[in-house]
Amino acid sequence: MRIHFLASKHEQIVDYFLTPIRFNKNRLKDMGYDIHIYYGIDEEFLNCDILCLISKSVIPQLKETSTVFTKEGPVISLINKARKYANKIIWCDNSDSTSVTHFEILPHVDLYLKKQLFKDKSLYNREFYGGRIFTEFYHQKYGVIDQNAFSQFYPLPNQLSSKVRLSWNIGMGDMFNAFTKRNKIRHYVPDLWNVSYNFPTMSVFSKKNFDIFLSTSANLHRPTVAYHRKELIKKLRAILKEKKLSGSINGKRLTTAALRNVMKMTKILPSPFGWGEIGVRDYEAFINGALLLKPNMNHMETFPDIFIDNETYLGFDWSFDDLSEVIDDILSDVDRRLQIAQQGQKAYLDSISYKGMIKFCSWFERQIVLV
Fold it and tell me: Distance between CA 250 and CA 261 in Å, rounded?
């Protein structure tokens, strides 16, 4: 069975998405799936059994400008053309956020895959201010306003909801090299070398001299999105000062080597929301044997399912009302901190292990091939 993916060479999220496919290409071939990755749209690309259109590749390549696709627009026109060649067409939504979708495309495709979904699918019939459930929260609770309205909303039609399935999250990508020169090179030559999940990790039980460390960008251009990061930075700085904790919150910029050394020596690594809920910082916490501290993510499901509050990460309320107490409690309970950090690291490493790759291939088959 021939399965074709449309990729791009300069989009990091696309590379994360394709990493486990590249890694397992031979295993998937043994299962009967002949997978090819293309970087342009032509007849050879379209001619296959299953055509997978990765959103962050298709939209820029077609120069689609509509926030909601129209029947006359380039994306749906391509899908209609592809019907003459491909037996099944799948839209792979790589939007960062659980909330951001293109459900107007559902009547035109056979499946719609997204890397994280609401547990409560009825939420897809609500239009959120700022396009995300957490931006709606900050708008309603604190009056945060965006200069330009988010206009990509299209409700999930009940009769087509069965087409919507989970793909896999960015944690299947190369998280260890996410911000390195190696990763930048991969943007230009993604198929140059074999992907590897073999990288060093730090023991949860190693000596850690710092309580909390966070280094992140906060200049996101949409105020409702940036609010969470800016507020978390402010709150954490106040907590460190008030409680005389060791560490740093958005201090001076560090080299990659220095940044990794600090993370290895830190007990708690917070990872805020950005354009979406899941970020590279989540996995850096697991890799470095630290406790992952995140805003609560109980509203969503993803694969691999490694984000379990109070088991693999420690959640706090989006309002930050319990942030100080959560940090106090976990720093005073060493056994619990180590247990959650250990379980989080194990869950992540299991997902990219040999058995994890077999599980991925089985998931790939169920989500993409079997209907």
Answer: 16
Supply the DSSP string of 244-265, one letter for each residue.
T--EEES-S---HHHHHHHHHT
For residues 355 and 349, is the Cβ–Cβ distance under 8 A? no
38 DSSP assignment: E
User: Tens of pLDDT along 311-332?
Assistant: 999 999 999 999 999 999 999 9
Please give the Cα distance from 174 to 183 (Å, whole number): 8
Show Cβ contacts of residue 325 under 8 Å, excluding neighbours closer than 6 positions: none
Tokens representing 107?
């009547």
Give kind and range of the element (H or E) at residue 2.
Answer: strand 2-6
Residue range 127-181, pLDDT digits in tens: 999 999 999 999 999 999 999 999 999 999 999 999 999 999 999 999 999 888 8
Mean pLDDT of 58-69: 95
Structural contact between residues 99 and 128, judged by C-beta atoms closer than 8 angstroms: yes
Task: Retrieve residue 283's tokens.
Answer: 């996995």
Provide the CA 16 distance to its chain's centre, in angstroms: 9
Report the alpha-carbon distance of residue 368 to residue 371 in Å, rounded: 8
Torsion angle defined by CA atoms of residues 89, 11, 34 and 160, in that order, rounded to the nearest 10 degrees:
-20
User: How far from 364 is each of 74, 80, 369, CA to CA, in Å?
Assistant: 28, 25, 7
Q: Characterize the bridge pairing of strands 88-93 and 111-114.
A: parallel
